[in-house]
Request: fold
Amino acid sequence: MLTLKQIRDERENTISRLAIKGVDAAPIIDQIIELDNQRKALQAELDNNLAEQNSIARSIGQLFKEGKAQEANQLKSKTAELKELSKNIDLKLKEVSELQNSLIVTLPNVPNAIVPEGKSAEDNVEIRRGGDVPDLSNQKLPHWELTKKYDIIDFELGNKLTGAGFPVYKGKGARLERALISMFLDCNTEAGYTEIMPPLMVNEASGFGTGQLPDKEGQMYHCTQDNFYLIPTAEVPVTNIFRDVIIDEKEFPVKYTAYTPCFRREAGSYGKDVRGLNRLHQFNKVEIVQLAHPEHSYEALDEMVAHVESIIKKLELPYRIIRLCGGDMSFTSALTYDFEVYSAAQERWLEVSSVSNFETFQANRLKLRYKDSNKKTQLAHTLNGSSLALPRIVAALLENNQTPDGIRIPAALVPYTGFEIIK
Reply:
């Protein structure tokens, strides 16, 4: 959530930068500022009213001491009128503040200055790529055929048990999934991230804190009776550990990692590009989260990007790193890098990770603060990234490593799977 100070003091810059995300923020910002002027005027009126009440109260006491009861009672009548007026002003003040806040939360995060202009994924900027695309000649099969051939993932059984987008992993398919989770967690903990095992459901306050609510409630599974939400990513519960927390400046950086199943309705998703593992309603993902000092958060972002890149290299997958343009960025992000791996069978790039810096946007919602060297309270910066999301990683591993003898397992993963090939 943008701060009121940012909206007021940086009006022109905020409007121009939000235009990069395709948002015409001027009308909303002007309304917010006008409401803030009203709020300040009401607060001043309320303060003056209360000051007058306090002054009269002292006068009443003095009049009673002097035996001037009649004059004191007349002032008591005036106090009653002022109290009623204060009550009405206070109600109006709350109405204006609530309306102002309801408008502020509709504004997305301001993109960083290096975010390129653009409306869609076609306008994203490739930063670098690595790895070699395998030559599968005429033997290439997409992963949804490979999983059936080797009986390792059953999409039809998942459809029977739940519905489309809920696959059942079997045998070496289940072992491969578990191996990847363990490998990713080990890579993360070796890089200094503390492992967390959070709840898979969160309350409304947690959803608001990281920006999923009120923006993405249509994409989240909602348990209406208890008003809980199934998490779309471990980012939500892990970051919310620090909701309403003031940490010491010396604690930075705070680094957590977590494996969780993730749940997304993915409303409106259909077609060949979402077949098989390409888009699921339930999937496994390992997440990394950092809390950083504002002066060092972009160093932290670069470190996280390099870390995710190192894991993909271990998996021997061809990849590219993309800087998202304004029109393709999330509501909460200030700067995002996407990782894509190449599927040699589908002959297209598959997104497997997003690594983002949210600056103070989430922290303001979370009331996540730190005390600086002057003991002054400041908003922290939050970052997160997929390290990694499993479905498309599995799809690319199966497709790129298919051979006439079976599916080869990358060397770095063999200690976790216990086998070198799926036959």
